[in-house]
Amino acid sequence: MTAEPDRSPGRMRASDADREAVVEQLREAAAEGRIDLDELDERVGAALTAKTYGELAPLTADLGPVVVDSGEPLTLRGGMHSVSRTGRWKVPPRIVAYGGMGGVLLDFTQTECRLREIEVEVDAQMAGVVFVVPEGWGADTDALDPGMGGFKDKTSGGRLPGTPLLRLSGTCGMGGVVIRHSSGRERRKQRKELPR
Questions:
Q1: Are 102 and 124 in contact (CB under 8 A)?
Q2: 144, CA 20 to 30 Å: which among 72, 127, 165, 176?
Q3: Which residues contact 38 (CB under 8 A, 6 or more apart)?
Q4: Residues in a beta bridge with 138
């Protein structure tokens, strides 16, 4: 009988993009005066040689979330027809989504998001709101009222270090709220749309 491999998030191998995200957060912390230049050099060196998420996590654990001026939120209203935000788009720190009768789809898979947290106010209403997120993104739904439609998390695994957190509040209404990864069909469509 063979032992199952340890698939806990901390033991997963980190990618170059994961290491770069941590380095960027460290640089921002140094620019804000939260760490000095010696600490920056030491932590950046450790980030660039990190092999797993477990090695990356402690490098930014004491820095807390990055605070960004929230400004005006991105507001999407489903109305009679569906509304979607897909492809490459800039993710703001605050989003408001009203499902209406047509529904709202927010696809984050092709975005370049450097935010630590994204505040999302949801009123799913009749048709609901769907979030499509990359692997490793997390969602905090403690402030989300399940309503009649409820909340469904169809993602795999937990949140990985350096990835954004969707902080959802509001109500799931009758249509419900779903968070999931891209389907096979969506991934094939995205590959076809990539410039050659």
A1: no
A2: 72
A3: none
A4: 165
Let me know: does 167 contact 140? Beta carbons within 8 Å.
Answer: yes
Q: What pLDDT does residue 144 have?
A: 96
Is 126:101 a contact under the CB 8 Å cutoff? yes
pLDDT at 64: 61
- CA 171/CA 122 separation, integer angstroms: 6
Tokens of residue 88, six digits: 């490459």
The model's pTM is 0.64
pLDDT at 194 over 80: no
From residue 31, alpha-carbon distances to 23, 49, 138 in Å are 12, 22, 27
CB of 172 within 8 A of CB of 150? yes
In the 3-class helix/strand/coil scheme, how is the chain assigned residue by residue? Answer: CCCCCCCCHHHCECCHHHHHHHHHHHHHHHHCCCCCHHHHHHHHHHHHHCCEHHHHHHHHCCCCCCCCCCCCCEEEECCCCCEEECCCCCCCCEEEEECCCCCEEEECCCCCCCCCEEEEEEECCCCCEEEECCCCCEEEEEEEECCCCCEEECCCCCCCCCCCEEEEEEECCCCCEEEECCCHHHHHHHHHHCCC
